[in-house]
Amino acid sequence: MHFTYPTILLAAAIFIILNLVASRFAARFGAPTLLATLALGLAFGNGGSFDFDYNYPTLTLHLSELALCIIIFTGGFEANWKSFRPILWQGISLATLGVVTTMFVIAALAHWLLDWPWLYSLLLGAVVSATDAAAVFSIMENTNLKLKSGVREVLELESGANDPMAFFLTLSITAMLLPGSAGINSFSLVGDFIQTMVVGLGTGLLAGRLIHLLVIRIPLKRGQFPIVLLAWVVILYAVNDLLGGSAFLSVYVAGVILGNSPWAQRDINIHFFESLAWLMETSLFLILGLQVYVRDLPAVIMEGLMLAAALIFIARPIGVGLSLSFFKNVGWQAKMFYAWVGLRGATPIVFALIPVVFKVPDAAKIFNIAFVIVIASILVQGTTVAFAARLTGVKKPTN
Which has the closest alpha carbon to 343: 131, 60, 92, 53? Predict the structure, then answer.
């Protein structure tokens, strides 16, 4: 089916309106809005003989990475550093040790239960190891769920900071599956990891301070501030891609610095980036839904559901329990809640595109299984967040 330029614009605008309407219906059932958006993408792309064919994994990956940078920057921009300080190491432990533990547990289960090769099992584990902030907090907003002090902050910090680790692991294991990867070993991976995080952290700190200095020294019009910040997000994404750093870590750190520094027009920029982040989330979930070939899902549905159950009931609880075992002030109720609300959203689907783009054998299967796992996580965990909060006692009492 051939689409002209006006037709594409019309379709894009209609998709946005349909997503708003569908999201309201999804919210009534306690489901995150991304489920409605993914459903729209599945309904209109690659699903049957009357749909148009959308198969651009490289373009989708690049657009998704940029969209994630804007979403992560917005999360850092809205973060309250004073609230983060008491739970800083808890969030970091979940975002690092928790991600690695989840990856290895899923890999072991995929290897033993499904007889997958170890590297492929590790690749799938890395792809689905990160949680999704947008999914968790959209549910909290839709259900007006208020959590006890520190609980929301831990989830927010984990979901904002675990993408760099999951992305690095996915990229590294993908490289190990490519021809000519004999020179890759544990020592080189450790060196690459240190470089990635140091460059990401360094560029984020430098950019955050530099941008803050510019916005307080250079007189800009009210409408120019958001555009300047958006340009810096793009710059950080490009610079880290060139230098081998973590763009996700970089934009998050820069966002935290700017969001917690006093300067004029700060509140206006927060509102702008809230709207922009929503648009990025909508666009991201839509194109990911378009990229999926529905006809390929039945072949992996049983494996996907089995691994989704393993992730929800085994891997995530083990990852949470191990990463928070060092903190005696974290009660078992909070640990149970963290284990249950480790929702998977857009990021695993985005990361599953990496082996597809690099043409790793059977990468399409991993992509489809990751999609099934995400849908299962949304349906099972996403619709029970409020119930889990009440059951574990982390819900803030209403006056």
Answer: 131
Rounded to the nearest 10°, the torsion over CA 339, 98, 256, 337 is 10
Query: Which has the closest alpha carbon to 318: 104, 89, 128, 87?
Result: 104
* Range of weakest confidence among 67-71, 260-264, 383-387: 260-264
- Summarised one tens digit per residue, pLDDT across range 164-222 is 999 999 999 998 888 766 556 666 778 888 899 999 999 999 999 998 888 788 777 77
Residues 6+ apart with CB under 8 A from 108: 121
- Mean pLDDT of the residues in the chain: 84
Given a contact cutoff of 8 angstroms between Cβ atoms, the answer to whether 288 and 240 are in contact is: no
Q: Are 191 and 168 in contact (CB under 8 A)?
A: no
Q: What is the CA radius of gyration of the chain?
A: 20
Quote the pTM value: 0.88
Alpha-carbon distance of 111 to 296, in angstroms, equals 22
Q: Are 87 and 157 in contact (CB under 8 A)?
A: yes
Contacts of 364 by beta carbon, 8 Å cutoff, 6+ apart: 296, 356
**CB 95 within 8 Å of CB 165:** yes
Which residues does residue 52 pair with via DSSP β-bridges, in sequence order? 45
Please report the pLDDT score of residue 399 as a whole number: 58
Q: What does the alpha-carbon distance between residue 104 and residue 106 come to, in Å, rounded to a whole number?
A: 6
Domains and CATH numbers, the chain: 5-392 (1.20.1530.20)
Structure tokens at 42: 């599945």
Q: Do 276 and 70 touch, CB atoms closer than 8 A? A: yes
- The answer to whether 288 and 64 have CB atoms below 8 angstroms apart is yes
Length of the chain: 399
When pLDDT is averaged across residues 225-249 and rounded to a whole number, the result is: 91
Largest CA distance in the chain: 63
- Reported as a single tens digit per residue, the pLDDT across 25-35 is 766 665 566 67
